[in-house]
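We emphasize that the prediction below concerns an isolated chain of 194 residues; any contacts that depend on oligomerization or on bound cofactors are therefore not represented. The input was used exactly as deposited, without trimming of termini.
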Amino acid sequence: MRIGIDIDGVLTDIERFIVDYGTKFCIENNLPIEIEAGYYDEAKAFHWTEEQTLKFWNEYIVFYATKYPIRDFASEVIHKLKEEGHEIYIVTARNEYGMPDEYYGKMRELVDTWLKENNIYYDKIIYTEGSKLPYCVGNYVELLIEDSPKQVQNVAEKLPVFCFDNQYNKEISGKNITRVYSWYDVYDKINKIY
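Result of the prediction step, given as a token string:
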């Protein structure tokens, strides 16, 4: 089977990153900490302006893209899936938003380096804009592991999706959507369902 895997929120715990570094950013920039859990968008979760959101990413995106840790057992499970004959496609909407000038244009290089440093095997990486559905269909992805509520719902119209559990996607359910809670839960459900 060809398995598509998102990065942010699936290989990493972006929700934890946003809360931890968002509150730090608020303190350092004399902003009130008003967190509304349940929002995928950090600007809505913290009530930030576009300018504040851009400043947040400008300060932390390079650290996040290069040093933020991988979720427990992600590499181990991906290697097991590969050994069992599955193809692994990284399907990411990672972009240059908020990149400091000296790093602008280098996001793909940072992603490649981070994947290698974290021992993430993949057969192909696909960078997307907008809906991931046409990218998945065009690359014959048979299952997508995703966390974005919008992407989960969109892709599930045509393909099975494992929705990686986060506060901001708790309300998502429906046809073709299976909730997963950890990388070994992903492994178990792939073996049971497929």
